[in-house]
Amino acid sequence: MERTARALFIFQILICVTVRNFLASSFAPIANTVGARRYRLFRMKSSLSAKDLKNLSSGKIIGPEIPSVEVSSKRLFLVRHGEVINPGGDRPVYYGALDVSLSPLGEAEAKAAAMYLEQFDLDLVVSSPLSRAVYGAEQVLSLQKDLDTPVVRMEGFKELDRGSWCGKTKEEIGLEAMAKFDACDESVTPEGGESYPFLKTRVLEDRDAVLDGLPAGGTAAIVSHLQVTRSMLSDALGIPTAKMAGLGIATASVTCIDYNPDGSQTVHFQSFKPDVGLEKSVDGAN
């Protein structure tokens, strides 16, 4: 019943989407709808300026080849948020579900991911309720020409709650405890925190609600977190939960999965990160 209610909520949002103007989408120039606020881009590998990044069109961001979504399937783009400002400063600590801020580089990464997705007609943009993911989702939405539906925030896509481990480094937690945790030994779940199996269950429940709300042939973007993306990707690849910690998901990267009517899942690509000249992000404890 709860899943049905979530699906109905999303469906009600979807029916409010404006009917796409095919002539406009075919012939009108791509509008530059990125917000007016300017961000200084730190740690650049090239001479790319903030203005250059802002004016990039989706046609300049080359990604993996991908077929159009089948009329009977549904497609999800899974986007991880950009680099964050670690609350431990030079001492990288785990933060999990804490609401930490994006770094200036992380904001630029989020914009680059949105620019890549600009070329796809999305029916829905969904986000974790945490601000680092909401920012990325708003960037994606801002570049969708015909989508005026607001970002849908879903609690199920919030990052893994590290509980009492928040604010501690891996060494302070203990390498043995971390290894057991990654292997889904629930006896070492931190006080007030979540295990990977618990996380994956809630993530897949909300993923299914999104899919139930999408029309056949529809596409949505879900902007969330490392462990959330791993949960959905491991399910698609048939990788056990106890092994999903080994899946690489870069900051502000995009993963694409199709969900087919026979129940199968097709992973078109994993952790694609648009190359727009930004320096490599710092991706520590999370």
UniProtKB/TrEMBL annotation:
InterPro entries: His_Pase_superF_clade-1, His_PPase_superfam, PGM_Phosphatase. SUPFAM superfamilies: Phosphoglycerate mutase-like. It holds the Pfam family His_Phos_1. GO terms for molecular function: phosphatase activity. SMART domains: PGAM. The active site is at residues 81, 159. One of its GO terms (cellular component) is cytosol. This is Phosphoglycerate mutase (2,3-diphosphoglycerate-dependent). It comes from Pseudo-nitzschia multistriata.
